[in-house]
Amino acid sequence: MSNTLFALVFALLLVAPLALAGVALINTGLGRSRSAAQALLGSLAIMAVTAIVFALVGAGVAGLPGGPGLSFTAAGKAWNWLGAGPFLLRGLGAAPPRAQLALLFEFPAVAMAGLIAWGSGADRWRLIAGCAAAALLAAFVFPLLAHWIWAGGWLAALGVNFALGKGFLDPGGAATMHVLGGLTALAVVWIVGPRKGKFPKEGLSTAIPGHNAVYVLFGCMLSLVGWLAWNAAGAVIWLRAPLAALPATAINTLLCASGALAATFAVTRIRFGKPDASLCANGWLAGLVASSACAALATTGEALLAGVVAGIVTPLLVELFELALSIDDPSGAVAVHAVAGMWGLVAAGIFAPHAGQLTAQLVGIAALLGVALPLVYFLFALLNLALRFRVEPDGERIGMDLQELGGGAYPEFVVHRDESFR
Questions:
Q1: How far apart, in whole angstroms, are the C-alpha atoms of residue 309 and residue 297?
Q2: Of 127, 143, 129, which Cα lies nearest the Cα of 54?
Q3: 3-state DSSP call for residue 13?
Q4: In the chain, how many domains are there?
Q5: Neighbours of 236 (CB within 10 A)
Q6: Residue span of the structural domain in which 293 resides
Q7: What share of the chain is helix, strand, coil (3-state, %, to 5)?
Q8: Comparing 365 with 81, which gets the higher pLDDT?
Q9: Is residue 73 domain-resident?
């Protein structure tokens, strides 16, 4: 890797955390006003916890591209399951430039997975429990997937071992960040249960709108900047894309998000008579998530199509999960990150010019659903026994800010009373 390319990718990765800031604002705006400070402090704390734990433990489990791994042989094929890198980031300065950039890419990536789940547990998930859950993700679950996909693990080797395209491809972190984060969010929602008053009767749902649409929409704009940087950097690090390919990757990222927003705008206007701001934000974010998988592999027309599909499906799934499955997901993370991420991975398999690539992508998705989801749920269920996830009913009534921080985010304004607690 040339010095110029190294400097460019390094600069892009310094901008990428703006995506984290955007998601944190979206999560905060979609929650209640009396939990806003706790939501943002939790986002910052999760970023800190994941950085520390990943540096101490997770980076060694993930390993570096081309680094050692723990593998076994079956059916004449090598199956690389775990990284065998040094802990505490020992020897980082001596690692090849691409490996150093790969590690820098992974630090905000693991934080993103934690933030996605944090938004789904809004208004009832205790801060200390959220940080502990993020630590588990950073120590083992995320590094496991990162090794399988990015560090030469068995999913990356599907192309070599079974002639399935170039192996499982995830240049922007659609699987390792977004599908993992969305599936983790689903596990959290199952464990903590719905907010009080969300489902007062069988088959019915009470709307609990987000308290600040401005936060949500500004978070969408902020996220775009981070996503453009992340997708471009990922194309160079994981696909070895040349400099000439980066403008197309950035354009595809924008088109994917734009197509998704336009589709969600149309769907909500048709269904409700007027466009819905929070669902349009979900659609925009779903387009960005889908772009994480396919922006570096698709043409402009294909990227636009991928975004339109994500934008149509997302608002319908948000409604389906809530009304039919009684899933109380304030940020819509299961639909926005898990489902849109899987769609992006499928789209990457369809659009990539490699024979067997779609099969490789489907194998990766099966691994996420069959291994990552049960593993996260099992670990979190055990953690919940030792460190209760859900706040006490009285704490939920007065708000997470007063309960956990002793003060509200908006002390000069009246916080609306929740009728369900009367």
A1: 17
A2: 143
A3: helix
A4: 1
A5: 25
A6: 3-63+85-421
A7: 70, 5, 25
A8: 365
A9: no
pLDDT score at 416 = 53
Q: Return the amino acid letter for 336.
A: V
Taking the C-alpha atoms of residue 270 and residue 316, their distance in angstroms, rounded to an integer, is 12
Evaluate whether residue 80 is within a structural domain: no
User: In this structure, what CATH number is given to the domain that contains residue 356?
Assistant: 1.10.3430.10
pLDDT per position as a tens digit, 213-227: 999 999 999 999 999
Handedness of CA 398, 388, 50, 219 (dihedral sign): negative
End-to-end CA distance of the chain: 63
Count Cα neighbours of 300 within 13 Å in the Cβ-side half-sphere: 8
Residue 106 carries which side chain, given as an amino acid letter?
A: E
Amino acid at residue number 269: R
- Cα separation, 374 vs 357, whole angstroms: 26
For residue 79, tell me if it sits in a domain. no
Assign 215 to helix, strand or coil. helix
What pLDDT score does 203 carry?
Answer: 61
- 68: Cα separation from own chain's centroid: 27
Residue 77's pLDDT is 84
Q: For the segment 369-405, what is each residue's pLDDT rounded down to a tens digit?
A: 999 999 999 999 999 999 999 999 999 999 999 999 9
As given in the structure block, the two tokens for residue 52 are 């520390």
In a domain, 76, yes or no: no
Reported as a pLDDT band with limits 50, 70 and 90, residue 97 is very high
- Model pLDDT for residues 27-79, shown as the tens digit of each residue: 999 999 999 999 999 999 999 999 999 999 999 999 988 888 888 888 788 88
Q: Cα 399 to the chain's mean position, in Å?
A: 26
What distances in angstroms separate CA 382 from CA 12, 251, 260, 377, one per listed residue? Answer: 38, 44, 38, 9
Please, which pLDDT band fits residue 414 given cuts at 50, 70 and 90? Answer: low
Q: Report phi then psi at 390, rounded to 5.
A: -85, 140
CA distance 141 to 12: 26
Cα angle 130, 131, 133 (rounded to 5 degrees) comes to: 65
